[in-house]
Write a structure and sequence with these properties.
This protein is α+β, with helices and mostly antiparallel strands and 126 residues long. The chain is built from 1 helix and 8 strands, in the order H-E-E-E-E-E-E-E-E. It has 2 domains: 34 residues; 91 residues, Sandwich (Immunoglobulin-like). The structure holds copper (II) ion.
């Protein structure tokens, strides 16, 4: 009888440890969601983005610095979203954004004609 209750105690202790692990990993994921990941600087030139790819994950908040080194007004716009930032020639702006779903996104300059001049790229959201 004593042996059985000891065994039961061990099983219960194991269950508590497992539950504790599950709770901890959930908490960590929430912590990552709260922080902002800095993507560095993207240069907006006449008429291209440099660099023209990004390493993105859904659900993460990113910050990007947009530097317009061209002679025209440019913008950084993610098609199909309301994520967009206009940058005047010679100016630098920062933009924070978060994408909810994985998939392929199109980043474009929405100024008239600029996309057709090559100012766009596609990138993967994991
Ligand atoms: Cu442009």
């Amino acid at each position: 009888m004593k042996k059985l209750s000891l065994l039961l105690g061990l099983v219960l202790a194991g269950a508590v440890v497992l539950a504790g692990c599950g709770g901890k990993s959930g908490g960590d994921a929430g912590g990552n969601g709260g922080e902002v990941v800095d993507l560095g600087t993207i240069e907006l030139k006449d008429y291209e983005f440099v660099p023209n790819n990004l390493d993105l994950k859904a659900g993460v908040t990113y910050k990007v610095t947009l530097k317009n080194t061209g002679t025209q007004v440019h913008d950084f716009t993610i098609e199909g979203t309301n994520i967009s930032k206009v940058v005047q020639p010679g100016a630098t702006e920062t933009l924070e954004f978060k994408l909810d779903k994985p998939g392929t996104i199109n980043v474009v300059c929405a100024q008239p004609g600029h996309k057709d001049l090559g100012m766009h790229f596609t990138t993967e959201v994991k």
